[in-house]
Amino acid sequence: MKNKLNGVIQPPACLGMLGGGQLGRFFTISAQKMGYSVLVLDPDKKSPAGKIADKHICKTYNDLEALDELKSACKVVTTEFENIPYETLKYLEKDIVVRPGSKAVSIVQNRIREKNFLKDCGCPVGKFIVIDSLESIKNINEQNSIFPAILKTAQFGYDGKGQIHVNNKIELEAAFKDFNNAPCILEEKLDLDLEVSLVLSRSSKGNFEIYTPIENQHVSGILDLSIIPARINSSLKEAATMLAKKISNQLNYIGVMAVEFFISKDILYVNEIAPRPHNSGHFSIDTCTSNQFDQQVLVLAGRELEKSVIKFPIAVMLNLLGDLWFRGNEQKEPKFELIAGEGISLHLYDKDEPRVGRKMGHITILGLKNQSQIDIIEKAEVIRKTLWEN
Ligand code: ADP
Ligand code: MG
User: Fold this and answer.
1) Surrounding residues of ion ligand 2, Cβ less than 5 A
2) Scanning 45, 80, 333, 365, which has its CA 20 to 30 A from the CA of 250?
3) Does residue 218 line the site of ligand 1, with CB under 6 A?
4) In 10 A of CB 197, how many CB atoms?
5) Which ligand lies nearest to the CA atom of residue 152 in the structure?
6) Is 0.70 surpassed by the pTM of this model?
7) What's the CATH number where 173 sits?
């Protein structure tokens, strides 16, 4: 296995990207800006990253011919979503450098392995039980109740998908059957004060570049708004940073990683790990000299991380879901011209069609001179209202 890269990959070499969504698209933009070319593998012929890549292989992730083609074009490859089949990463790793590696991805792409890993390395996690059979449900002691709880499939969940809220064992059994008895974890539902994420890059030499903790608000399990910086005290900030570093060190992680945290009754819990840049880290595109995708390119190419200087310390990011395209009873484009202005940065992902719950784009609202965090949050809400009411 060639998991070591001797030397640096210099432009105009070709970098491989597994997945063609918006994260892959931002990666492609960063890589091309630095002079690299990008090969995207994604089965969707209209994928956002595939459309702008130098080469798009429009095949499935387990198509060996496609993987061989990727191997002959690229010395390094990364991924933009954690549900990439583990076997694909293993297959590529035989001949080229895969960052992050299959081992780290296999842990974080499975909630059972991920939670056990976190627990084993001493990270605080909420109460959870592995549910992999009807027997495991029978064994739950209702006295020492975990309810109300959330049943989550161990694999393939994202944006709140693959999750069912349950209040007792009867509902749990029904939910488990709804998931066709697929392996799951049952998590105690925490009373959340706040959700926070931390995006970091870790180079092959073990050096870090870490963005400030981000405060995240979700609606129906999908990220809605990110507030930068998170409104938490410095000891929570420090604790989150220490934990994220520890997790990436333990995983021997090389790449960009996001750690999602819950804060409940002033206690910090690790929720989950994303082995890639994160939706909440999109603020870095407009506010930092080196954004999370630039860092992903640097780490992948075996280069040292760039110190990222913050140009706008206060910002808010508003996600644009496909729902906005269906306001009223018809499908229509949002009137983005109505919200244009200084400090407002619109990013659309060029998805082939809007769908309810689908991430179509985001808006970053920058804190300009004399604007407070509250001003910017209010500005984001005015923008949201304007888009929805017109
Ligand atoms: P994913 O982001 O992969 O869909 P998460 O586990 O992060 O899955 O869940 C999505 C959102 O659902 C979280 O950001 C949080 O708002 C809510 N949620 C998930 N687990 C819990 C929990 N144990 N207690 C309270 N809220 C939760
Ligand atoms: Mg999450």
Assistant:
1) 260
2) 80
3) yes
4) 25
5) 1
6) yes
7) 3.30.1490.20
Q: Could you report the per-residue pLDDT of 210-219, keeping only the tens digit for each?
A: 999 999 999 9
**For ligand 1, atom 11: residue with the closest CA:** 221
Show the domain range for 34: 14-98
Which pair of tokens denotes residue 170? 């009867």
Overall number of domains in the chain: 3
Instruction: For ligand 1, pick from 23, 150, 185 the residue to mutate: most ligand atoms within 8 Å of CB.
Output: 150
Instruction: Reply yes or no on whether the pLDDT at 150 is more than 50.
Output: yes
From the CA of 160, which ligand is nearest? 1
Contact 260, 251 (CB under 8 A): no
What residues pair up with 37 in beta bridges, in sequence order?
14
361 vs 22: CA distance, rounded Å: 8
User: What is residue 158's predicted lDDT score, i.e. its pLDDT?
Assistant: 85
The reply to whether 282 falls in a domain is yes
Q: DSSP label at 306?
A: P
- Percentage of the chain beyond pLDDT 70 is 98
Q: Name the token pair of 356.
A: 């309810």
pLDDT tens digit string along 46-60? 999 999 999 999 999
192 lines ligand 1 (CB under 6 A): yes
**Is 157's C-beta closer than 6 angstroms to any atom of ligand 1?**
yes
- Output the CA–CA distances (angstroms, integers) from residue 101 to 31, 276, 366, in the order listed: 20, 11, 35
Q: Looking at residue 313, which CATH number applies to its domain?
A: 3.30.470.20
Smallest-distance ligand from the CA of 196:
1
Could you give the CA distance from residue 104 to residue 117 in angstroms, rounded to a whole number? 10
How many Å lie between the centroid of ligand 1 and the Cα of residue 272?
Answer: 9
